[in-house]
Amino acid sequence: MPELIPNQFCIFKDWDEISENKFADTVTVLLANEFPENPPQFLQRTPHGYSNTGEFASDIEKGYSKYFPGFETIRARSIATEPSIPVIAYCQGKLLRNGIENLDASLMKHATKIAITALAKRFEKSTIYGKIQGHVETIML
Questions:
Q1: Which pLDDT belongs to residue 91?
Q2: Which residues of the chain have pLDDT under 70?
Q3: Domain housing 44
Q4: Is 120 among the domain residues?
Q5: Domain assignment of residue 95, yes or no
């Protein structure tokens, strides 16, 4: 663990579990169903993989036993003017791109198209709103 400087205020931010983040969850579930043998799992593994605040507190206590984190869960709505915007960000951006291309690079258009359709169907509007949720952890050193 890195050396900490006393009297410093540290803030950590991480996403809550993927089911609390509706756009990411919709795309992840769809791709898991579409590619059940080897589903792209980056979203649930990395940005949403450290969502348990109890686990975070335990890790802080193990590494810095006298410092106790405070937690705040932040809930908001993500807005996209059309379903393709978050899907392209997830599928063709760094978030899931490697997982999809590792299956077969030619699947990118197919994965993007079906994910856009799934998001449009789930939210039933051209401008879509999806719940997003994360945690802010604060520690006074």
A1: 93
A2: 1-9, 64-69, 141
A3: 24-140
A4: yes
A5: yes
